[in-house]
Amino acid sequence: MVDPDEYSPHWGHMTDADYMQLALLEAQAAARRGEVPVGAVLVSSDGQIIARAGNAPIAICDPTAHAEILAIREAAYGAQTYRLTGTTLYVTLEPCAMCAGAIANARIGRVVYGASDPKGGAVESGVRFFEQPSCHHRPDILGGVMAQPCAAELKAFFRVRRKPNKTAKSNKIAK
């Protein structure tokens, strides 16, 4: 397991699971901020971490502030180009249609995701964005990397958010 205290922008030879663990750390940080726990890490072709982010639509009042979008923006600003060819995007949840569009426009070479998203995903679920004739760039896709811990993080977050408030129910009954 990767130690978050030893997080470095360049790790040398890491596996898909190692990079996904870093994306999971970003998701956990997002959850602590009250955001849906999705994290992303963007890696150059030589294995250097060029961007990382967690969901932040609430914090920055931006509905497009998904982890993938924020990581892509950070990398593009840093590289001074919108084309991020040869990169790999690690994300804890299957990207939605908006994020898939950004991935295609950035020309990201590979997408590795953790948990599938049957309701909102657009890679192997839903609209299958990259299979559409109007999609001009199709990255290599690998789903299911560390799927269980990625899904568990989301389930735990929503379990707490959806937990019935016993005090509220008691007050309704008392009235």
Task: Tell me what you see in this structure.
This protein is 37% helix and 15% strand. Strand 3, helix 3 and strand 4 form a beta-alpha-beta unit. The N terminus is likely disordered. By secondary structure, it is an alpha/beta fold. The longest helix is centred in the first third of the chain and has 17 residues. A five-stranded mixed beta sheet has the order 2-1-3-4-5.
Sequence-ordered SSE layout with sheet pairings:
Blueprint: H1 16-32, E1 39-43, E2 49-54, H2 67-79, E3 88-93, H3 97-106, E4 110-115, E5 140-143, H4 147-162, H5 166-174
Parallel strand pairs: 3-4, 4-5
Antiparallel strand pairs: 1-2, 1-3
Helix pairs in contact: 1-4, 2-3
Describe the largest sheet.
Answer: 5 strands, mixed
Low-pLDDT ranges: 1-5
The radius of gyration is 17 Å
- SSE pattern, N- to C-terminal: HEEHEHEEHH
Strand content: 15-25%
Shape: globular
What structural class should be given to the helix and strand makeup? alpha/beta
Mean pLDDT: 90
End-to-end span in angstroms? Answer: 52 Å
Number of strands: 5
Roughly what percent helix?
25-40%
Secondary structure tally, helices: 5
Strand order of the largest sheet: 2-1-3-4-5
